[in-house]
Amino acid sequence: MIKVYTSSVIEAPADAVWAQLRDFNGLPKWTPFVAESRIEGELAADKIGCVRNFRLKDGGVIREQLLTLSDYDYQCSYSILESPMSVANYVATLKLTPVTDGNHTFAEWSAEFDCAPEREKELAQKIGQGVFQAAFNSLKSLLRN
Amino acid sequence: MIRVTRSAVIDAPIARVWEVLRNFNSHSAWHPAVGESKIENGEPADQVGCVRNFFLKDGNHLREQLLALSDRDHVSTYCILDATLPMQRYVATVQLKPVTDGERTFWHWQSTFEVPRGREKEFEELVGKGVYESGFEGLRAFLRRGGNVSRPAATADALQAQAIVVKAFGGPEVLSFEPITASAPGHNEVRIRQTAIGVNYIDVYIRKGLYRMIEPPAAIGMEAAGVVQDVGTGVAHLLPGDRVAYACSLPGAYATVRTMPADQVVVLPDEVSDEMAAAVMLKGMTAEYLLHRTHRLRPGQNVLVHAAAGGVGLLLCQWAKGLGAKVIGTVSSEDKARRARANGCDFPIVTGNYSFAREVKNLTNGRGAEVIYDGLGREAAAENLEALAFTGHWVCYGQASGPHHAQPDLSSKSGTLSRPVLFHYTAERAVLQEIAGHVFKALREQTIRVELHHRYPLAAAAEAHRDLEARRTSGSIVLLP
What we know:
The complex is a heterodimer of chains A (145) and B (481). With 145 residues, chain A is of the alpha+beta class. Chain A has a single domain, classed as 2-Layer Sandwich (Alpha-D-Glucose-1,6-Bisphosphate, Chain A, domain 4). Chain A contains 3 helices and 7 strands, in the order E-H-H-E-E-E-E-E-E-H. A 7-stranded antiparallel β-sheet of chain A has the order 1-7-6-5-4-3-2. In chain A, a hairpin with a 4-residue loop joins strand 3 and strand 4 (61-70). The longest helix of chain A has 25 residues, at 120-144. The radius of gyration of chain A is 15 Å and the shape is globular. Chain A starts with a strand and ends with a helix. Chain B has 481 residues and is an alpha+beta fold. Chain B contains 12 helices and 23 strands. Chain B has a 7-stranded antiparallel β-sheet. In chain B, strand 5 and strand 6 (88-99) form a beta hairpin. The longest helix of chain B has 25 residues, at 120-144. At the A-B interface, strand 1, strand 6, strand 7 and helix 3 of A face strand 1, strand 6 and strand 7 of B.
């Protein structure tokens, strides 16, 4: 089991940040690497158990299932059902906490998964920096404008 | 119920912030609203259950107890036990999280509590702004000025200092006052600006080369007190500016500034002066473990203390008397007998030739001593065995007349022999803290007293040694840098 943890401070109120993140079908709107996304079976995007099926700009297809969603805690978690990354038991959690000093948002994105031992370092880097941090950066510039 | 939540981002790595916040008594150093604060009963400030007893600068007084501490999760939870403010059921949690995007720290501070009806807003403001928000600012300022682990560049360097160095083994003339450098404290180290240094007979033995604990040229000295200049990484129980003292196993205390392992250093309570601490650490902690750990002395026991007018001997007599024991001592002169008697020794035996067993038997109705504190060694071995009660405990903590030739025949008394060494008892910081705390408490309650008549400038250490060896001193000696 490997764990990845990325956190950042976003200079916008938590409600504004959460409005973007709670849309489980919204990745194309705020991440730089998702081309298109849909929710399978015509379920609502905030229905626990719904599956988002999205295509990366590099062509890869990923299916992820929403496991928890809490507007009260500004938190959601999801698992990967299918992906080109060859990971197993992948569960990720995204959580926001208000920073009362300056009315900003502390954002945490963590994941746990299994993979071949020789790929751990590469995947941790790819997910922690290439996905989570890159998405935070993109979210920051989106919310600044 | 009121819930107050405040959070902030601190521009420092989490390790640095946590190092300060995990110390339950550090708030007087960084929080602008907090005045004097101490941890009750001399407990360590990271001991779950410890109580901090403090004043706010507005005059209010609070006692708060540490309920939980997690270095893994960077969480500290505490509650108010008593306060001069009308707050009930106050429980607060401080949690830190790393901001991996830039080496910063997210600090979340939350509490729930109750106040009299109608005063909710006032207290939400008081706690949220007056305590939490001003705390964020206070800690930022504290870290900026280099508090605790974030050492300012100026003191990250070696400091010029002076020390008394043994040039070669020999008489007092080999002691030389020389410039040295005190390196910046490394991991688990502290650098202390020393204000008073204790002189002990062991220093003379080391200077002469009888105890090969140094290789000249090297500084000597086992104990001192002073003020923390700065601390290295990994040190959580000390902060710059703390008044501290130590007695340690590594010679080198005869110096104006010393860099040393932090886990041997304890914070001094207000009522123990630097000079008193320098004079009492080694002897006081020795008496503590001998009477409470090596042997647990009980009221009514017959205890035999050799060299009862010596440095450790006087403390043993005072403390043993305080514990309700019947104290018999040996001394070498009538003068010393008077001093021993004035310090709790019920029956000083004057003897110049290590002959005391018969007298001890007479004083104990033939029983003998249940415990013997023996710093004499070889020459007194036969008499000690004779003076020991059946199933008695013979505690041999020194050997002034030379090491024992052979194991004494303890089976003749079903006796127990212990050969304790202070630094084995103080190897764990929690136990050291307990022993030192016990000594400070005994001083406060005047169970033990230290006579301090002789003060010399550090540069005059050779003179202090001459006077000590010529027996021109009585009581403790300290050197002042």
